[in-house]
Amino acid sequence: MKNQAKQKNKMTSVPHSIELLFNNEKLDIMKVLCLMNAFASKNHKPRKVSEIMFYYSLINFDLIQLFNSNERNMKGSIPSPNMYFRFQTKLNEILLKMVHLQFIEIRGQVVDKIDSMKVELKPRGKEFYEAVDSEFFDVLKNNYIDAINNVKFTVSNQKVIKGVQQ
How many Å is the Cα radius of gyration of the chain? Predict the structure, then answer.
């Protein structure tokens, strides 16, 4: 009986290489840490969880194209909120792990909504990120900085990436 269950699990499981491609928690932590460092390069104020989610989605789900007027007019498409909402629940887990690693600090009260809690990069998170010598993360950080400078974090812009009709 046990052997049959093991064989069934082996037949239905996804290869590790594919799983890492779509469910790589360490990569997601580094991407969020990269974003926090991009925020810190502008100023060191704490950021709302909703703001982190907004800029993460713009770059990593290629939703930045929604704010390029030429592309929006040419494609005329409305974004699918699936990736945004799927990652929204995952982000909470990532932030908790980053707190445990002492990369960030989360500020807020128990009664606060998660989106309104503030996240601050701690020196350990900054040091860890800077120790990683990667062209991928350098480019990603520059993309985050460009997005922060060019697309404002507003309620109406949040609605755009969520696919809410205005």
Answer: 18
